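Task: complex structure prediction.
Instruction: return structure tokens for all chains below.
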Amino acid sequence: MPESTARTQVPIEDVQHLAWLARLSLTEAEIAKYATDLTNILHHVARLNEVDVSNIEPTAMAVEAEGNVVRPDVPRPSMPQERIIANAADTESGAFRVRAILEESA
Amino acid sequence: MSDLTHLTIEQAAAALRAGETSSVELTQAVLARSEQVEPTIASYILPTPEQALAMAAAADQRLQAGDAPLLCGIPGAIKDLICTEGVQTTAGSRILEGYRPIYDAFVVKQLRAAGYVMTGKANLDEFAMGSSCETSAYHPTRNPFCPDCVPGGSSGGSATAVAADQAFFSLGTDTGGSIRQPASLCGVVGLKPTYGRVSRWGVIAMASSLDQVGPFARTVRDCAAVAECISGRDELDSTSSARLVPDYRAACGRDIKGLRIGVPREYFIDGMEPAVSASVRAAIEQLVSLGAEAVEVSLPHTEYGLSTYYVIMPCEVSANLARFDGIRYGVPKPGETMWDAYSNTRGAGFGAEVKRRIMLGTYALSAGYAEAYYVQAQKVRTLIRDDFAKAFEQVDAIVGPASPTTAFPLGAKLDDPVQMYLSDVFTLPASLAGLPGICIPCGFDEQSKPIGLQLIGRHWEEETLFSLSYAFEQSTPWSLPSNRARITVGGGL
Amino acid sequence: MSIEWKVVVGLEVHTQLLTQSKMFCACPNDYAGAEPNTHVCPICLGAPGMMPVVNAEALRYGIMAALALNCHVPPFSWFERKNYPYPDLVKGFQLTQYKYPIGAEGFIDIETEAGTKPFRVNRVHLEEDTAKNSHLTSFSGEHYSLVDCNRAGVPLMEIVTEPDGRSADEAVAYLRKLRDILIFLGIASGRMEDGAMRLEANISVRTAEEEAQGILRKRCEVKNINSFDVVRQAIEYEIKRHIRAYERGEEVVQATMGWDAENGRTVFQRSKEEAHDYRYFPEPDLPPLRFTEAEVDAIRLTRPELKHEIIVRYESSLGLDRYRAELLAQSRSFSAYFEAALGLFANVDRVANVLLGDFLAQVNDRGLSLDDCALLPVSAADIAELARQWDSGDLTGPQFKQVLPYMFDKGVGVEPAKADLGIRKAEASTLGPVLDEVLAANADAVQKIQSGNTKVMGFLVGQVMKATRGQADPKDVEKLLCGRLGV
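Output:
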């Protein structure tokens, strides 16, 4: 992120879009507060761009396992249905019930 | 026996085997202690006294039969981020109120197999996001040394349960310092093992590339005993290591003569409380007097640790918390459409700090920004790891403070996220590098609030940390019962 | 003036893999017909604290497919989180090999009118299937949906092509060949009707000049297609729609479309602007995967033979013609069945004729499938024996035609069938009385033959065969008749 962008206020519309992407219903006050917080935090972390990272590989995992970690393709019994749905607020015939899903998944 | 709750795990285990006490008696003692201190300290989201007594009775039977593991019959507290089958696990969040996992976490299975006694589910910052235990959706926890102050976080309740003698040990989790910082603020021993040493299976994820489970205890040997019990390969955690788990208690008492300890110049900065700096320097002197050799080292990218962490962690958080939609578990909220219900559930179920981090991570991963934030942070993470690798060519461990400050008053940093995040400035780099770190008490400030010493080791070299910590502990008064939290019984703090 | 429009089609295929367990947990992978949420564990439920563990066999299948599609297998792969919230996505993200697929830059040769043409494959990657949603309406008229996690975490492989299709025919040829490859590898069922294999087509058109310059116009993606017929219809529909738009001077909006089967047309679902922001990043719960050349070579050497490879072998080493080779290689199981029979009776023509003649007729008449020949009532050993007896004359043609259906009916071998049907070979010496009878009853025919009309001989042989209920050898009968009649 170029410093100039990080120093500018994160626009309210961007915060609203993020809230939609993350599926968080936020009040207007929360939106305003997060716009400020994000601006401040992003300003702080923009320091990362001072660091010369040319020829540096990214680290996604600090300690890697030796060799591939896989499991053999051996099925084991699943859990009983009543345990799988035990924590669900709304079920019907053993399935989870939700408000109508109108569109198709990605 | 005078006060059972002051015993170390090893003393209690000996007393159990000598028939001087029983697990039920030990358990009743810590429960009685909890009854007195809990109204003030509030270590637990859910105390589990009935369960504790039942587990204690079972442990007593096993002890009578002989051949019981060390932790059999020993009361311990579990951070409420760690799943316990059939026992409410909330992660400190409203969204999981009433959630009863259908499985035990690996670490809980290990403790169960050893016959431990669960005293309760300890309070934490919501989803382990915080450094003060104040973001818990249930209640704050207070520092037993100073009830106006925070215990640190996120594993605040786990630290206070041990510090206030409500349990002999506890489990916490450490992502950026969530074991070491509260251990420092509460005057107890806390270990964050090497990334991959302990299975994370059944531990509600915050930032998966950083999270690690570890113990709190009142002494180094107790901490070693619990660490040994919970470590090891778990086929259900692909990042857990198959390396053999050493006898950590055997490392306690090993000669530390000739061990080289690195003192990073970047870990003594402006803004650190003078008492912290003085105590840590005195502790280094003490280690030198015991035969260790102090070497100045440099970890030049330390100043970028916080920024690196506050990009990588929220990115992982934003994905890890996406599953909480109220459909399969959790507390749903109504809405006109499916997406309304979805967003309302999450909007109402998560607290301010959790939402802040989700928003931050969503931003840092979104199209057009990922390269500048996420990928850049991962590259700086490489440099931070390389700093340690270079330092560890010269030294066997790195010493410094665990926290720049002692316990601070409740509310002091709650409205300023960056200030709060700075609490973890000395613990974050080791987390980013996946290194083991231990925090042990090393003194008090002028208000008698504890100060902690942090030791960071090479990957998989927890033993070195235990050797150094134990030598230090045995030659200093900081972990003696007389230096325990002075919260008194029957009012009058 | 009319422009000559050129067609561009790219294809994406999702296929479930036939492993025993799911992609990242040990739940059984055979959820079809199961009660909701009965093939589920905390991992595929996306319960808090759960972590994925990679199924080694799914990885092997991925590499096998990559090799069969002439892809190279990169030395390094790793799963990433594809973030989008949805009720059928239990973790709120899908694990998929995004930046590091398990196979890249391959091709499939397809037959076109202009000859063989390579259809390039861009990538092969592994991921996990989602839960299944169903949509209902309550008595009070309220619409709602149910989510069943049985399918969540089933191993899924995606194969993405370059935009190499120049017609609906080419697209379908590619898809048929791909499906054959996956089925012959034994890693996929290829069943489109129940969603085990799902098709997507990206369609655009352009002018001849644009084609010459390698320019592409806006494309539309038709998703969730479950048959070759529909994919053809959808492609043809989109081609017409695009051309019509351009010829009216309109633009085509880059979009995702669905197929409206009722009206035989595509329908708009969402535009590119509404596309998701998937925020991919490496799955921190899974260490990266590395493959050595030796490991990849071992899979290359042990992978099953593909349909087109079998056809070529049948032509070159068994001397079968292309038509019969293709029929015999129509399913992996049938070709194995054929080869098992051949192993017991090595007469290629006889065995092939038995299988491709009366055998196939029986299979078709009875509505049986060649997908798994182990389920047929007649074994390969029975077929070998049947072919042997027919070849040696132990069974006459008519007897053969009687025995085979009986074997299908009862699921018995050749000898028991013959015994049940009372079939034994009629010896020439025992035919005397029958010949007497037939000759006496057909005096006209006898006269005709004796006056030189030998064509009628066939009729007499037939009468004898009828009288012996087909148990005589027609050649023997003819010989005997000739002797009797002195011709």
